[in-house]
Amino acid sequence: MSVPGDRVRRTTLARAECLRRLRQADFARVVISVRCLPAALPARIAVVDDHQLLLASAEEAVIVAARRGDVLSVQIDGLESDGATWSVMGSGIAVEPSGDPALSAPLTRAIASGATLIALPLTIVSGERVG
After folding, report:
1. Cα 45 to Cα 36: distance, rounded to the nearest angstrom
2. Cα–Cα nearest to 76, from 66, 89, 95, 58
3. Beta strands 124-130 and 85-93: pairing type?
4. Is 62 helix (H, G, I), strand (E, B) or coil?
């Protein structure tokens, strides 16, 4: 409920702050288009560096989209102790993972349970805090 005179304060989060929040997350929603409709499906994530993250998903729609090289977005959000909310999204064109296999170590359990590893270049990273 809002009280007259109260203002919602929106703050754009810097890329570095968005990446910090992504690094702290264990899972996220992968936002894709399925038959021209938006879908948000769960996945485990691990940030590799400031320009790429890995995700592990067993969701067939996510795996198919990644293999096609579709644009994927990964979204996380949270609630702070003062009641403020925040949301961070990273987007890019999915690619096959490459490089050091040790980079996927945080996702080993998800991969062992049948998930597929997908690399997502963080071409666009944005976030906002509202409170």
Report:
1. 25
2. 89
3. antiparallel
4. helix
* H-helix or E-strand spanning residue 21: helix 15-24
Local structure of residue 106 (DSSP, 8 states): G
pLDDT tens readout for residues 12-42: 999 999 999 999 999 999 999 988 899 999 9
Handedness of CA 44, 111, 72, 60 (dihedral sign): negative
**Residue pointed to by tokens 């609630």:** 79
Cα separation, 103 vs 76, whole angstroms: 21
**Nearest partner of 86 among 24, 1, 4, judged by Cα:** 24
pLDDT tens digits, one per residue of 96-127 = 887 666 777 778 888 878 889 999 999 999 99
- The residues spanned by each domain of the chain are 10-124
Confidence (pTM): 0.86
The CATH T-level fold of domain 10-124 is: Pnp Oxidase; Chain A (2.30.110)
Instruction: Tell me the two tokens of residue 116.
Output: 């597929």
Q: Are 92 and 50 in contact (CB under 8 A)?
A: no
Contact call for residues 32 and 61 (beta carbons, < 8 A): yes
